[in-house]
Design brief:
It is built from 18 helices and 7 strands. The protein folds into 3 domains: about 130 residues, P-loop containing nucleotide triphosphate hydrolases (Rossmann fold, 3-Layer(aba) Sandwich); about 80 residues, Helicase, Ruva Protein, domain 3 (Orthogonal Bundle); about 140 residues, Zinc Finger, Delta Prime, domain 3 (Up-down Bundle). It is elongated. The strands form 2 sheets. The protein has a 5-stranded parallel sheet. Strands 6-7 form a two-stranded parallel ribbon. Helix 11 runs parallel beside helix 13, helix 12 packs antiparallel against helix 17 and helix 13 runs parallel beside helix 17. Helix 4 links the parallel strand 2 and strand 3. The longest helix is centred in the C-terminal third of the chain and has 23 residues.
Length: about 375
């Protein structure tokens, strides 16, 4: 009998954690989805828990599926563990198997060996294989929501780095770096090294294990009040002076581009237009956070921050935006997006600066 697939509602991280804690593993796992960082972490966790370190050189094989012919794959699948309870085989990019090799795998999946842990992975951007999902424990590693990224930062720091991250440091780090787990892990590692290096011999022991906002500022190069989120808020409240001062700071941050900023501003403009329509329909202000949550859930918009924070920020400024101002903002954003994607244009900062000024001016247009 093939192994039973994990329930659709089960978090892949929880499925892996449960297997690791119980030291009880299904014979085959199929790991797919668009978050390669989480996927690779799950593979490492499963291998570390299932295969004894002393015999790992003999009992763990990692291969690229596209490089294997049917005979080689059959040999790998049929090899018993050596001086151990279990062996493991990781097949990367499993959907790249050639026809004969795939047939060999399909036959194996009908009766997988109980003393072999087979991990099948597909890279981000690859469509899930239905047959593999049905024959293995299928784990879909979708990107974490911004809210869950916050929790991941804290968890990664405590489990991998043995460090504590303050709430304001977590918020600042996410605002500055975004939701890319690879980049967040790298910056957290730098923050940990910085904190340990800065601590003096006379400091209390706790000082060596806490990453605060000052450490994040020193390492990432962004201060509180100078993040993408701060720029979004300044535009939302039509504060041209603050917004224009922030443009250069924001564009100088890791992996932040003018196109990404325009995308976040566009999500904000669509949300404010939606909020304006709900207010005009008689929805009271105190109901707007729930309305904005529904908007984000339905549209899948990217607000550049956790949904709760975005909903709260938009609620505060909704009444400052008219229907005409929202419509004008969306037109300006489309024009800026087209300009930024024009290969003949190189001054992204100038385009973004002009856009920010025009967006902040929509309030004055309403008053006129």
């Amino acid at each position: 009998m093939p192994p039973k697939a994990a329930p659709r509602e089960a978090s892949p991280l929880r499925v892996v954690q449960a297997a690791v804690q119980a030291r009880a593993f299904e014979p085959v796992y199929y790991l797919f989805g668009d978050d390669d960082f989480l996927k690779e972490a799950a593979v490492r966790d499963l291998l570390d828990a299932a295969i004894d370190a002393s015999t790992r050189d003999f009992n763990c094989e990692v291969r690229r599926a596209g490089d294997l012919d049917a005979e080689t794959l059959g040999s790998l699948l049929g090899t018993p563990p050596m001086l151990a309870e279990r062996r493991a085989l990781v097949l990367r990019d499993v959907t790249a198997l050639k026809k004969a090799a795939r047939q060999q795998l399909d036959r194996y999946l009908q009766r997988p060996a109980s003393d072999t842990l087979l991990l099948l992975t597909s890279p981000a951007g690859t469509k899930a294989d239905t047959a593999l999902s049905q024959a293995a424990v299928a784990l879909d590693f979708a990107p974490l929501t911004p809210e869950r990224v916050r929790k991941w930062i804290t968890h990664h720091a405590s489990t991998v780095l043995q460090m504590t991250v303050t709430d304001d440091a977590t918020q600042l780090l996410q605002q500055a770096v975004g939701n890319d787990l690879h980049l967040l892990a790298a910056e957290l590692d730098k923050c940990a090294s910085y904190v340990q290096g800065e601590a003096s011999a006379e400091s209390a022991a706790e000082a060596h294990t806490v990453i605060d906002a000052d450490a994040v500022s020193a390492v990432v190069g962004v201060r509180r009040g100078e993040t993408v989120t701060d720029l979004l808020d300044a535009v939302a409240r039509h504060d041209a002076a603050a917004a224009t001062q922030l443009v250069s700071h924001v564009l100088g941050q890791p992996k932040v581009t003018a196109v990404q900023v325009v995308m976040m501003l566009s999500t904000q403009a669509f949300a404010l237009a939606y909020g304006r329509s709900r207010r005009d329909a008689g929805v009271p202000t105190n109901r707007l956070p729930q309305e904005y949550f529904a908007f984000l859930k339905e549209t899948g918009g990217f607000p550049g921050r956790p949904w709760g924070e975005a909903a709260s920020a938009w609620t505060k400024v909704t009444d400052q935006w008219s229907t005409e101002a929202c419509s004008r903002a969306l037109t300006l954003l489309l024009e800026a997006d087209l300009a930024l994607k024009d290969t003949t244009v190189s001054n992204a900062e100038q385009i973004l600066m002009s856009l920010v000024l025009a967006l902040c001016a929509t309030r004055r247009r309403r008053a006129a």
